Amino acid sequence: MQKIIVLDRDGVINEDSDAFIKSADEWLPVEGSIEAIKLLKQAGWKVAVATNQSGIKRGYYGRATLSEMHRKMQNMLAPHGVDWISYSPYLGGDNSPSRKPAPGMLQAIEKALGIPLQGAPMVGDTLGDIRAAQAMQMQPYLVRSGKGERTLATQDTLLASIPVYDNLLSVVQQLLKEN
C-alpha cells in the first residue's frame, strides 16, 4: 500500500504571516521542513499539499504569483518535489467546499493521486486543518510552528486527542520511526 501524507503549507512548510505571504521572496521555509519532505520522498511516501490561499480573492497576489511560490518550493525539494498541490482561493465566508475545514481539497488529492486518505497523516497548524483531516478520517497532527501555538492557546476540546509536535521535521522523524 502506498504511503501518503498531506501537509498544510503556510506555517507547516513555510513561515506564515498575518499579513499573508504575497511573493516568492516572502516564501521562506520553516526550519527543517524541506529536509522533512525530502526524507519522506526518500522513504517512498507520496506528499501532497492542501492550502487555503484566500490572499488570491483578497487581491494580495494572483495565481501566477502563487505558482512562483510553489515553483520555489519545488526547486528547493529537487529532485523529489511534492506529488500534488491543491489550493483554495476562497474566503471563509464563501462557504466553498474546497476551503478547509471542508474536505474538498483532500477529496481532490485522493482523486488525483488515486490513493485513499483514510488513516493517512495530515499535518497542520490550525483547527481548520484538524477538522478537514477528521472529515476524511485521516490522522491529524498539529505543529507548534505557524499558528500552532495560537491554536493550542484556544484549548479547544478537539485538541485533546491530537498529537502535537514542534514542527514538520519532528512529525516526520516520528512517522518514519513508526513506519
Descriptive overview:
With 179 residues, the protein is α/β, with parallel strands linked by helices. It has one domain: 3-Layer(aba) Sandwich (Rossmann fold), CATH 3.40.50. It has helices at residues 33-42, 63-77, 104-113, 127-135, 148-153, 168-178, and strands at residues 4-7, 46-52, 84-88, 121-124, 139-143, 164-165. The protein starts with a strand and ends with a helix.
Strand line-up in the sheet with most strands = 3-2-1-4-5-6
Largest sheet: 6 strands, parallel
The CATH class turns out to be Alpha Beta
- Tertiary shape: globular
Number of strands: 6
Q: Helix amount, in percent?
A: 25-40%
The fraction of residues assigned to DSSP E strands is 15-25%
Helices and strands, in order, run as: EHEHEHEHEHEH
Query: How far apart are the first and last residues' alpha carbons, in Å?
Result: 12 Å
Structural class: alpha/beta
Short key terms for the protein model shown above:
6 strands; single chain; Rossmann fold; 179 residues; six-stranded parallel beta sheet; 6 helices; alpha/beta
Give the topology.
Blueprint: E1 4-7, H1 33-42, E2 46-52, H2 63-77, E3 84-88, H3 104-113, E4 121-124, H4 127-135, E5 139-143, H5 148-153, E6 164-165, H6 168-178
Parallel strand pairs: 1-2, 1-4, 2-3, 4-5, 5-6
Helix pairs in contact: 1-6
Keywords: Carbohydrate metabolism, Cytoplasm, Hydrolase, Metal-binding
InterPro entries: HAD-like_sf (IPR036412), HAD-SF_hydro_IIIA (IPR006549), HAD_sf (IPR023214), Heptose_bisP_phosphatase (IPR004446), Histidinol-phos (IPR006543)
EC number: 3.1.3.-
